[in-house]
Amino acid sequence: MSELTYTLTELMAVTAAREIMDGEVVFAGTGLPMLGAMLAQRTHAPNCIIIFEAGTIASQLAHLPMSVGDPRAMRGAAVAAGLLEVFSYVLQAGWVDVGFLSGAQIDRYGNINSTSIGADPRHPKVRFSGSGGACDIACLAQRNIIIALHEKRRFPDKVDYVTSPGWLAGGDARQRAGLVRGGPSVVVTTKGVMRFHPDTKEMYLASYHHGLTAEAVAEDTGFTLDITGAKETALPTADELHILREVVDPERVFLK
Amino acid sequence: MSKLIGLAEAAALVPDGATVSFGGFTTQRHPMAFVYELVRLKRRNLYLFGHSPGGDWDILIGAGCVKRVELAYEADEAFNTIGPRWRLAVQRGEIEWEDYSNFSMVARFTAGAMGIPFMPVRSLLGSDVVARQALTPEQRQADARTSPLKLHVMQSPFDPNDRVVLVPAIHTDFCVIHVQKATANGIVRIEGQTFADVQQALCADTVIVTAEEIVDESSLRSEPERNQVPYFAVRYVCHVPWGAHPYAAYNYYDYDPRQLKRYHDSAEDDTLYAQYLEQFVYGVKDHAQYLQVVGGAERLDGLRSAPEYGYRPDLKRRRLDA
């Protein structure tokens, strides 16, 4: 049997899609989250609902949007409104089951920085776009999927700026901060899949991608990563890859 | 009463130092033609409020028109995940700013639009959006238009265990929105996502609407449930076809990936950026000439929305060098 070939982007999209359950309300951002959500909708989760913060609810996407405010997001939507409606009546009210987040730095508790690099955010070495809706999604979705490039510098002991709160200092810190729900459930990276310990909320390695070892993934992480029990990440199936390439992103907008 | 005026005349109403918000969201419905006029007028010290602007802010920042901003995000999403002139301006210490999130910025516009001093949100708790401030207390004190406090965390008076973040209302001198249809007296019809245009408009002293089409009042009054902004809140209306280019206007045209690539390919470099501004803004006299320079009717026809989609399903979005 010949081995399937796939890119890391494809593997991450498939792995993220498998985190979405049928019927869930998904708050999706641009890029990999769109690939993951659309793939889930066309495989095991046909009834999942895609929501974009710019105002569209339950789109039936025919073409991949290049922004959450893309006219493509209007396709087949059940409701088109604006940011206030989506953030207040949908996200803050608790309707969103799963959100997607990413950033330049992620710490062991899943706190994310997408604001700037450098100790003083008033004088940053590198400035990014800023939160957008990320902080809101991090605070108010029932759970979050984090997508990231896996490099040591991107997984530091402490992030320079907490744009999007994860489990904060671990344990019940999130609750103590006054957040009413949520928290990251999984981190899908270019090297593996991490989850969070149920009590301490520290990140541990659940699986490493084919061709790597658990030790190699831990070596590329800036904090100590528990690798006890890590297995190999399930490979994408031929069916998933076919749908991803031919149905979800035939234009190769995001797939490489 | 007709509120129609020319685009250049409308842009000239915005003085140096004004507080302004622009409608739209990252890649759709920014009043770009109006923004180009402000760049051509070499406006200075503008103070901008926004949630997720894109190239509207980036070009103004890059052209030196902006002093202070309050925002959640500045980028073109998949076309460029960081606004290049925004990034450089911050790194070079050329701009003052304060960071919020999209929800909190929209809550702030909403409070202003509702005539109340603040809005509570359940977001932000535990984040550095609460813990840190980019503007110093002195900077806040020195400008009465900046809220003396960035935000305030409080317990609900009805339940001591319930915590919320109060974010201050926004009021701006001007709000400029680009919409699909408007009447001469200022009834507004936005098609597709409304973003936060309505809230932004209703917290501004002077609302300027640029529209793809100026239509008869009866045609909008026959379906009032599809209109968004009451005409008495609108001060001026400009007829500006292709007014959001290179961004999209649902049902009218798609974004222009070629022009966006030109922008982002040049914006990382000061010299190339100066050339971009010269070629597409300073060197053209008005929006009609701009539309010629970006490719004219032939290019624009290829961006027109297909009626059954509201966008261009066959738009070439990748490998644009060919």
Quaternary state of this entry equals: heterodimer
| The CATH C-level class name of chain A | Alpha Beta
Gyration radius of chain B (Cα, Å) is: 20 Å
Enumerate the spans of chain B where pLDDT stays under 50 for 5 or more consecutive residues.
none
User: SSE order of chain A in H/E notation?
Assistant: HEHEEEHEEEEEHEHEEEHEH
- Find the count of extended strands of chain A (DSSP E, 2+ residues): 14
Structural class of chain B: alpha/beta
Rounded average pLDDT of chain B: 97
- SSE succession of chain B: HEHEHEHEHEHHEEEEHEHEHHHH
Measured between the Cα atoms of the first and last residue of chain B, the distance is: 50 Å
Distance between the termini of chain A: 25 Å
The helix tally of chain B amounts to: 13
Q: What would you report as the Rg of chain A, rounded to the nearest angstrom?
A: 18 Å
Strand content of chain A: 15-25%
Question: What does this 3D model show about the protein?
Answer:
The complex is a heterodimer of chains A (256) and B (322). With 256 residues, chain A is an alpha/beta fold. Chain A has one domain (8-248): 3-Layer(aba) Sandwich (Glutaconate Coenzyme A-transferase), CATH 3.40.1080. Chain A has helices at 8-17, 32-41, 83-92, 134-140, 173-176, 214-219, 238-248; strands spanning 25-27, 49-52, 56-57, 79-80, 98-102, 105-106, 112-113, 116-117, 126-127, 143-148, 184-189, 192-196, 203-208, 231-232. Chain A has a 10-stranded mixed β-sheet with strand order 4-3-2-1-5-10-11-12-13-14, sandwiched between helices. Chain A has a two-stranded antiparallel ribbon with strand order 6-7. Chain A is globular, with a radius of gyration of 18 Å. The two termini of chain A are 25 Å apart. The mean pLDDT of chain A is 97. By secondary structure, chain B is an alpha/beta fold. Chain B has helices at 7-12, 32-40, 55-62, 84-91, 102-114, 128-131, 137-142, 197-202, 217-221, 257-267, 270-282, 287-293, 296-301; strands at residues 19-22, 46-49, 66-71, 96-99, 118-121, 152-156, 159-168, 172-182, 188-189, 204-214, 236-239. In chain B, strand 1, helix 2 (32-40) and strand 2 (46-49) form a beta-alpha-beta unit. In chain B, helix 3 packs across helix 4 (84-91) and helix 10 crosses helix 11 (270-282). The mean pLDDT of chain B is 97. Chains A and B meet through helix 3, strand 9 and helix 4 of A and helix 4, helix 5, helix 6, strand 7 and helix 8 of B.
